[in-house]
From TrEMBL:
Source species, domain of life: Eukaryota
Pfam family membership, one: CutC
UniProt-recorded Gene Ontology molecular function terms: copper ion binding
Function: May play a role in copper homeostasis. Can bind one Cu(1+) per subunit.
GO cellular component: cytoplasm; nucleus
Protein known as: Copper homeostasis protein cutC homolog
Organism: Amphiprion ocellaris
Compartments in which it is found: Cytoplasm; Nucleus
C-alpha cells in the first residue's frame, strides 16, 4: 500500500473476501489501488475479471501491475508481447494507470522496452515498480526514469525494507527535486511509517496493510499443497486489514 497527504495506495491480492475487505481500503483514505495477483512473487498481472469487479466497486484510481511472471526483470520477446497485450486489454477495461518495469542484463533501466510499453499505455500514467531496487546504479536509473516520463517510482531504497533503505530513499528524493514522485514501499507498517515519512521527506507511500485470516473451510485435507513448499498455507488467507488502512492513513495525515 502507498499513501500520501491525499491518502493510501493499496496493493491487492485475489482472495474470495477481497471485495469486502480490499475495496473498503478506499473508504478509509486509500488514494489509489495497485491491483495485482500473487503477492508471494512480488505481484503479477491480475486477471481481467478482477479488474472488472474492482472497477464496479471503487471510485479511487486503480493502477494495474504489468508483470507476466515472478523472478527477474529481463524479459524475452514473447514476454514483452504478453505485457503489451495486457496493457492494451487492461486499458480498454478501465485501468486508471499501469505499474511496470524492465531492466537490461547489466542492471540498467531498459529504456527502449519501457518506451514501448509506455507508448502502449498512453495516455495512462505510469509507475516504475520495484525493479528499481535491482538496478546497478540508482542515481543513474532515476535520471533515466525521469527522462522516460514516469510519474513515480516505487522503491525500498534498494534494500530489504524501506526502513533499511531510508538513507537512499532520502537521497533519491533530494536528487529528484520534484521531477518524479519517489514512493517508499516494502515492509512499511504502523510501527515505522512515521519514521520513514519524516526521515525521507516522501509525500506518498506504498504498503499492503494485510493481515492473515483463517479459512472458513471445515473439511481440510492437510496432506495436499496446491503450490510449492514456499507458498501460502492452503487454509490461510491474506486480506487487507481495514483497521491498518485507517491507522496508516491517520499517521500519514498527522505526519505530512
Amino acid at each position: 500500500m502507498s499513501t500520501s497527504g491525499e491518502g493510501v495506495q493499496q496493493c491487492c491480492r485475489k482472495t474470495r473476501s477481497w471485495v469486502t475487505q480490499r475495496l473498503s481500503a478506499g473508504w478509509f483514505g486509500a488514494g489509489r489501488l495497485e491491483l495485482c495477483s500473487s503477492l508471494l512473487e512480488g505481484g503479477l498481472t491480475p486477471s481481467l475479471g478482477l479488474l472488472q469487479v474492482v472497477k464496479q466497486y471503487v471510485k479511487i484510481p486503480v493502477y494495474v501491475m504489468i508483470r507476466p511472471r515472478g523472478g527477474d526483470f529481463l524479459y524475452s520477446d514473447q514476454e514483452v508481447e504478453v505485457m503489451r497485450k495486457d496493457i492494451e486489454v487492461m486499458k480498454s477495461q478501465g485501468a486508471d494507470g499501469v505499474v511496470l518495469g524492465a531492466l537490461t542484463e547489466d542492471g540498467r533501466v531498459d529504456a527502449e522496452l519501457c518506451m514501448e510499453l509506455m507508448a502502449a499505455a498512453r495516455p495512462l500514467p505510469t509507475t516504475f515498480h520495484r525493479a528499481f531496487d535491482m538496478v546497478h546504479d540508482p542515481a543513474v536509473a532515476l535520471e533515466a526514469l525521469i527522462s522516460l516520463g514516469f510519474q513515480r517510482v516505487l522503491t525500498s531504497g534498494c534494500d530489504s525494507t524501506s526502513l533499511e533503505g531510508l538513507p537512499l530513499i532520502k537521497r533519491l528524493i533530494d536528487q529528484a527535486k520534484g521531477r518524479i514522485i519517489i514512493m517508499p514501499g516494502g515492509g512499511i507498517t504502523e510501527r515505522n511509517l512515521q519514521r520513514i515519512l519524516e526521515g525521507s521527506g516522501a509525500q506518498e507511500f506504498h504498503c499492503s496493510a494485510r493481515s492473515s485470516r483463517d479459512s472458513a473451510m471445515k473439511f481440510r485435507n492437510t496432506c495436499v499443497m496446491m503450490g510449492a513448499s514456499f507458498s501460502a498455507p492452503e487454509y490461510g488467507l491474506k486480506v487487507a486489514d481495514v483497521g491498518k488502512v485507517r491507522t496508516l492513513n491517520a499517521i500519514a495525515r498527522n505526519t505530512l
